[in-house]
Amino acid sequence: MAQTTSRDVARLRLGAAGAAVTVATVVTNALAYVVPMLGARRLSAADLGALATVLALAAIAAVPGFGLQIAVAAHRARAGAGDTGRLGSRTAALTAGVTLAVAPVLTVVLRLPLALTLLLAATTFATVLSGRWLGELQGDQRFLRLAAGMVVVAVGRYGGLVVGLVLGLGPEMCLFLATLTGLLALPLLARLAGSPAHPRPADPAPQRPPAADPAATSAAAPITGASRLGARQVMTACGATLAMLTISYADLILARQLLPAAASGAYAVGAVLTKGALWAPQVVTLLVLPRLAQGDRRARLVALALIVACGTVLVVSSAVGGELAFRLVGGADYLHLAGTAPMFAAVGALYAVVFMLVNERVATAARWPAAPLWVATAGLAAAAMVIAPRTVTGVLACSLIAAALAAVVMGWLVFGRSALTRRTGDCHRG
What we know:
This protein is mainly alpha-helical.
């Protein structure tokens, strides 16, 4: 009876954590959406184009921050607390330095004001450095504080932009205010993560599993450096993050390149369904990452089941309400694509599975965790350019096949190799 009550409390806490992280994600996305909406009303077309370009560059430059967060979270979940300050500072400084070095080139090639590209380096430093503390909170499974930290980072990243646009300031001053708010958010984020490294009782899943999955550990690369967190782990996580972003946008880029303007615009409308199915279950991956780093096979199966269930619901809903989906996303002009709605959703649902499995490979220190994604991206590009018809359906079919093959390969790497390793270990023991 006591055990049942304890499990119920743990599930309740985990549900509360999931809800909190979901709300934090919604707040982040809402702030990111408000910026172009206000910019379209407050800036000239030229200024809006410049600001939008810099924000796109900032999203690319933020990749090391996500890699830092994943690497820190996996290390803390697997090996406990360690010194992440020096690594975080070096990663942020290096990223900002590279951004600063290429600022003159970006200014000339993209026809941007020099002030914008210089400020980009400063705001990049704050964004990347925040990954250190978010990773500590995630790795310690302090998910309620993690949700608060995500909101702090989002307000710091976009708050200054929103204030500047509301006041009618130009792009340079808006980005300057965003740099200030981003830097000011760091002390608050550090305070949130500054509690003892062990999870607090109020947060969900505070206890680590009694034993790690030996198969998961063996199937990964030798975790000889698991006790140390260094540049290699961060670079691996950065590479995986970049691969996930690349393959998730590859079909959109190919559609823009291969299709007529009207068809590429229609594809962009359908891709909204792909992104919705991709990011809807990402809270599951965020919550389960520490358990994956500890080799918890049950958590891996539960997470995969939840993501598959979510994707199935979204695909079925798209099949039933395809016309409504396209009407809401793009309007009546795109209703002729309603039949493709479940295909767009299926691509996102498959990539959601792939991304969880890639995170599992990163968390268990596997070698080249994102290699299948780069291969799938290259295959998608080759098939779309050489084989597929130059239509929305043609590009979409290539994207769906690439996503399915990537899911199969990643599933074999995570589950098939683990089972093979377990059988080999049993034979050796026998």
